[in-house]
Every structure is written in structure tokens, then in C-alpha cells.
Design brief:
By secondary structure, this protein is α/β, with parallel strands linked by helices. It has ten helices and eleven strands. The strands form two sheets. It has a seven-stranded mixed beta sheet, with helices on both faces. A four-stranded antiparallel beta sheet has the order 8-9-11-10, with helices on one face. A hairpin with a 5-residue loop joins strand 10 and strand 11 (about 280-285).
Length: about 325
């Protein structure tokens, strides 16, 4: 059985990101040599002069926007594969520091910010590149997802990543420049300390060495979780595709949960980070390699209990 409606000081913690408390002890004991593994991987994937570490994905995005040198009156058009109006406030508030933003392509578009949403890919990247305006690819939830051309993260002038979405770490982002080498000015623009950079690199290096195992575990948990939700009547918001590694489970609700906001609050009170996919009858919950089948059972049981004991009243 699972304890439901626990004392607030005794709730578990299930995050969208992969960091768990036990990661602190493990990460602190990692050998310095793992940094070289990360550097070699990043150099091979992005080019030795084309990437810098950042505090997080937001700082990477801010540095990319700053580098575009857009006027304050310019418009950055935000594009997503769902075409839903839902977009993180982290994205919009960062863009607003440099220019305006909108959600529709057209004559008002001076740059594109393409959010590969929850690990799912925006499909019209080739067409965007032909418009000859700047592009930033938001790959924060898309570190491992790729298209058949293996070009995701390489279409834009810049691509930005967030390590905490896929690795067991509390800090770290990545800014990649695809058109030009990273300038010395940009290389020293991040607020990361050298100690923090070293810490990020050794954690990433250690986990990159286990890439195959990590992806296999994510797939195992994904298959186990989606089966339960689908049998209850929910369905996947995006179809499963080869080489697409989702950062979470995004589910169509089909009216099963009557009040998704109340359901969101109920899950939060049980220690489960989640949200409504606002603008649609959909919601999302965690799904990653640091969950096991019992964790999935618990998360699903909280939704099931809410439906059976609260939503039906």
C-alpha cells in the first residue's frame, strides 16, 4: 500500500528533473578525471570552440539573446511542436529583457526561438533556416532527442541546453554557437565559477559514460508508466517516435480528471512535481531514469486516488 494524504513533513519528492538527494553524496565523490570525459564528449559533439557552460538553461538563453544584438523593438517569435500557447515564463521573461516576443510567424518575426517541447521536436527546422533570420534552438529538454538527419541543435545560430533535465545534477547549462566560434567576451560572460564548471563537467562525464544504460532505463520506465496511464484512459499527447527521448510524460486527459488544477495541487501535496498543459485538456508528470516501477506505481496511485475519491464528488 501507499500512504496518501501524508503529514506535510513526511512527503516524498518526485521531480520532473532527475536530481535526487542521494546524488549529492555520489557527485561529491566523483574523480576529477571524469571532467575530461565530458570535455571530449562535448568537443566531439559540438566542436571544441563552439560551446560554453552556463549556470542553467536560462543563462544560456540570455547569452544567446544578447549575442543576437536585436533592437528593443524587434520581435522574437516563439515556436513549439504543439502550437499550444503554453510556454514557460522563464522563456518569455528572458526574451523580454532584450526585445518583444510573439507566437506567430510572419513579417513581424525578426528572430525565431524554437522550443523543442518536452523533448519532442519541431518539425519545420529546414524551412526556418531558409528565411535567413536568427534562430535559437531551445534544447533544454532535448539533450538526447534527434531527427533522422541528426541535426537537432545544429539548425540555429545558437542552441541552449539544461543538464538538470537529464542528468542527476542541480546546476549547469550549455550554450552552443553553430555559426561562429564562441568569442572571448562570451566565454567569460557566464557567472559560473571555475569550481562549479569542474563540478558540472565531472558529473556530466560520469553519466555520459553510462549513456546507454541511462537511456535503456528511461525507456523501461516510460513503457511501464505509459501502459498504466493508457489503461486508465489517458493517451500520449505526442506520438512515440524513434530517437525522441521525452523529458516527462505528457498526457491527454480526455475529460477523465474534471479539475486538472485541483489534481495538480493534489499531486504537489503528495510530493509529485507536475503541471497542467494549459490551453489543452492535458497534464504532465515525471518520468526518468531515477524512477523505478514502485515510484511509478506511487505517482499513478495518487492520480487514481484523486479521481476515485475527490473528482467523483
Amino acid at each position: 500500500m501507499f500512504v496518501l494524504n501524508p503529514d506535510p513533513y513526511s512527503t516524498p519528492v518526485y521531480r520532473i528533473g532527475t536530481f535526487v538527494t542521494q546524488s549529492i553524496a555520489r557527485n561529491s565523490k566523483l574523480e576529477a578525471s571524469w571532467s575530461e570525459v565530458a570535455i571530449n564528449y562535448l568537443n566531439q559533439r559540438f566542436g571544441s570552440d563552439n560551446w560554453i557552460l552556463t549556470i542553467n538553461g536560462r543563462e544560456a538563453m540570455a547569452l544567446a539573446m544578447q549575442s543576437l544584438n536585436l533592437s528593443k523593438t524587434a520581435n522574437t517569435t516563439i515556436l513549439t511542436p504543439s502550437n499550444n500557447f503554453y510556454i514557460s515564463g522563464c522563456v518569455t521573461s528572458t526574451i523580454e529583457k532584450y526585445c518583444h516576443w510573439n507566437r506567430e510567424k510572419g513579417d513581424q518575426s525578426d528572430a525565431y526561438f524554437v522550443n523543442h517541447e518536452f523533448g519532442y521536436l519541431y518539425q519545420d527546422m529546414e524551412a526556418l533556416t531558409k528565411e535567413n533570420i536568427p534562430i535559437i534552438e531551445d534544447c533544454c529538454t532535448t539533450f538526447f532527442s534527434q531527427n533522422e538527419n541528426k541535426k537537432i541543435g545544429k539548425y540555429g545560430d545558437f542552441s541552449v541546453y539544461s543538464f538538470s533535465k537529464f542528468f542527476s545534477i542541480q546546476i549547469g547549462g550549455l550554450l552552443v554557437s553553430n555559426k561562429e566560434k564562441i568569442t572571448d567576451k562570451l566565454r567569460h560572460a557566464s557567472q559560473l565559477t571555475e569550481q562549479e564548471k569542474h563540478y558540472i563537467l565531472k558529473v556530466i562525464g560520469f553519466e555520459i559514460s553510462m549513456k546507454d544504460e541511462i537511456l535503456a532505463q528511461r525507456n523501461t520506465i516510460w513503457q511501464y508508466a505509459t501502459k498504466q496511464y493508457q489503461e486508465f484512459g489517458f493517451s500520449l499527447r505526442f506520438p512515440s517516435e524513434k530517437d525522441v527521448i521525452p523529458s516527462l510524460i505528457l498526457l491527454n486527459n480526455h475529460g477523465i480528471i474534471k479539475d486538472l488544477v485541483a489534481h495538480k495541487d493534489y499531486l504537489n501535496k503528495h510530493g509529485i512535481q507536475n503541471s497542467v498543459f494549459y490551453g489543452e485538456d492535458a497534464f504532465f508528470v515525471p518520468c526518468h531514469q531515477n524512477l523505478n516501477e514502485t515510484d511509478v506505481d506511487y505517482i499513478f496511485s495518487v492520480t487514481k486516488n484523486y479521481k476515485l475519491n475527490h473528482d467523483s464528488k
